[in-house]
User: Which sequence fits this backbone?
């Protein structure tokens, strides 16, 4: 059983992260899918801490688009995990975009223009960081995609366009794009869901699901990490899947293989 | 093999007065290996083009899902140098700025105008919603790689699924049909993800194609029934292996089906013959998750089964099968005795057949109820009378 306080836990291993918090860059998109019964927010918090806390990467930046919660919410949670977001924000390592209080225009054209301006800010931030000495990776995070779709008048196509642009930016500047979406929001759709489009686009898919046996006090759910492997023109690495259980505690999360918990 | 047949068809190109051969490669999220197949086909065709073995003298690659740099590296790794690529490869770049956002931002000074370096001639497409303009770009670039007046070029589109996000199925089908009927197009192929579209879109694309290559999972997992540690190995297997089925539509209307397996490897994919038990040729057996066909041994065993109460009609005495395998002569008398007893019981009009087995012949692990011979109907009657007397007293 490993907690998230140890150097590398099961989640980090499944993601291919190094001990220094690096790895997982190089133009990758990571999709977190969760449900009402098993919120995947803890994964997002863990990844924020990992990307900001690595001592060998002082110039790495996290660009965070929040459609779900105000800054104070993340600040409070990350403080308990030993990470001061306020300081990181002042040091320009944590760039927070409050998407909750924007004035969203009516109509798809207005939404596209707004999205264009948001993308422009992100590209400018990433370009600026990449020009700094010692730059390794940037991270772009979106919490969450279903609320983003609501904000954009329900246009899942615009969301997918935006993700495509983030992905091409990630390829160009060696970034990691992390997005959170809710699987059960799309479960009743008759037409093919946009979530499937995102699964095709993503290089790594993490699913947070309840156990097949139902609720339990000691185990809060299971994570399935599908790592499609890196594919470059010269060759591909093989895809891998890892499945393990988790338990969310006050200040950390425990990850363990089924049956290995004492 | 199926993959080789596809490569040959694309290499040979179009006959005079006929539409160009068109290949649809389709996959799904449970067998996401379509991109590997696309890369393989592209590499094979490129090899034929660079060695002047194909009708097509060049390729116009329309890149939506992956960057032009990716394809340049892919083809260079297959023994093509950059100079040679520039002679016969053109890329319509629908990946970098498909909606013109970057150009708009650069023009307004918000971001710098950094163009990505690429080793091949890539023509930037800034509006993928305009399929007429896309068609013109493809044809224009195709003419650049043709050496003769009557020369032809190949077209490859790495994601028709992306086209369908921005345009209707009728516009997309129209684009593909126009390309197929263009007299300078030798062949074309494209990839799409079947589970991203409605059935009518998939069907429309398949109707336009002369070849449909389908990638399916090698293992049928319990999809939709939740994840557990048991189906993880099966899902992982589907990431590296798949069933590859190809349907060829001949000009005379005949359909030819071929099937094999594909395995992903470090440097691409490998096609191998399908294992025994998989469908390797056209068959009328419906596609289900269990085997409906009999093997030779199973057919022979079935022929040897003696059916109960059937008049064999071969001149031999009738052998009634009472649940035991033995049909030897030493048991014949016992069976005749049993048969007599069965007839007696049948005459009682109860409509059921009771086997009263001779205890000496009873098999050690017989399925019969061992208590059957302990109690008879008359015994039950007397017991019942006795109980009634006790109750009334």
Assistant:
């Amino acid at each position: 059983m490993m907690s998230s306080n140890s150097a590398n836990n099961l989640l980090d291993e499944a993601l291919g992260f190094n001990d220094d918090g690096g790895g997982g860059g190089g133009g990758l998109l990571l999709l977190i899918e969760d449900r009402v019964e098993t919120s995947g927010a803890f994964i997002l918090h863990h990844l924020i801490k990992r990307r900001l806390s690595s001592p060998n990467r002082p110039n790495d930046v996290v660009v965070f688009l929040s459609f779900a919660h105000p800054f104070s919410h993340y600040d409070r949670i990350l403080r308990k995990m030993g990470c001061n977001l306020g300081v990181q924000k002042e040091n320009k390592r944590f760039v927070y975009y409050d998407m909750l209080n924007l004035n969203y225009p009516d109509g798809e054209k207005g939404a596209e223009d707004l999205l264009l301006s948001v993308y422009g800010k992100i590209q400018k931030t990433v370009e600026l960081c990449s020009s700094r000495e010692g730059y390794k990776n940037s991270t772009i995070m979106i919490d969450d995609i279903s609320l983003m779709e609501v904000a954009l008048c329900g246009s899942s196509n615009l969301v997918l366009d935006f993700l495509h642009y983030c992905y091409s930016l990630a390829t160009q500047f060696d970034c990691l794009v992390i997005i959170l979406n809710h699987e059960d929001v799309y479960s009743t759709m008759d037409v093919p869901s946009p979530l499937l489009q995102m699964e095709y686009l993503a290089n790594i898919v993490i699913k947070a699901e309840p156990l097949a046996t139902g609720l339990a006090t000691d185990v809060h759910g299971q994570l399935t990490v599908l790592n499609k492997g890196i594919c470059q023109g010269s060759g591909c690495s093989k895809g891998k899947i890892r499945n393990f259980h988790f338990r969310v505690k006050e200040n950390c999360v425990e990850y363990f293989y089924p049956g290995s918990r004492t | 093999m199926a993959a080789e047949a596809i490569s040959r068809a694309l290499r040979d190109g179009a006959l005079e007065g006929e539409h160009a051969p068109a290949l649809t490669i389709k996959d799904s999220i449970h067998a996401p290996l379509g991109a590997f197949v696309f890369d393989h086909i592209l590499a094979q065709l490129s090899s034929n083009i660079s060695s002047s073995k194909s009708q097509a003298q060049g390729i116009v690659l329309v890149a939506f899902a992956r960057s032009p740099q990716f394809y340049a590296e892919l083809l260079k790794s297959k023994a093509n140098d950059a100079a040679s690529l520039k002679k016969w490869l053109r890329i319509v770049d629908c990946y970098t700025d498909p909606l013109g956002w970057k150009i708009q931002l650069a023009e307004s000074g918000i971001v710098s105008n950094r163009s990505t370096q690429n080793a091949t001639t890539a023509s930037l497409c800034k509006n993928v919603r305009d399929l007429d303009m896309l068609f013109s770009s493809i044809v224009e670039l195709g003419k650049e790689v043709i050496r003769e007046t009557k020369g032809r070029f190949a077209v490859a589109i790495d994601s028709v699924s992306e086209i369908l996000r921005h345009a209707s199925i009728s516009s997309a089908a129209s684009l593909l049909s126009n390309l197929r009927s263009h007299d300078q197009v030798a062949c074309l192929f494209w990839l799409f993800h079947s589970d991203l579209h409605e059935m009518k879109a998939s069907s429309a694309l398949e109707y336009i194609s002369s070849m449909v290559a389908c990638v399916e999972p090698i293992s049928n997992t319990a999809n939709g029934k939740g994840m557990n540690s048991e189906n993880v190995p099966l899902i992982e297997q589907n990431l590296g292996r798949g069933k590859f089925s190809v349907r060829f539509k001949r000009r005379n209307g005949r359909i030819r089906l071929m099937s094999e397996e594909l395995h992903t490897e470090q440097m691409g994919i490998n096609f191998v013959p399908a294992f025994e038990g998989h469908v390797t040729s056209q068959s009328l057996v419906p596609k289900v998750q269990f085997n409906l066909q009999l093997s030779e041994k199973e057919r022979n065993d079935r022929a040897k089964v003696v059916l109960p109460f059937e008049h064999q009609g071969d001149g031999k005495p009738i052998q009634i099968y009472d649940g035991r395998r033995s049909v030897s002569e030493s048991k014949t008398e016992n069976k005749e005795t049993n048969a007599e007893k069965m007839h007696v019981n049948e005459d009682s009009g109860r409509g059921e057949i009771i086997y009263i087995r001779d205890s000496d012949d009873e098999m050690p692990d017989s399925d019969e109820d061992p208590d059957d011979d302990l109690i008879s109907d008359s015994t039950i009657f007397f017991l019942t009378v006795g109980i009634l007397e006790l109750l009334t007293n």
Q: What stands out?
A: Residues 25-218 of chain A form a domain with the Rossmann fold fold (CATH 3.40.50.300).
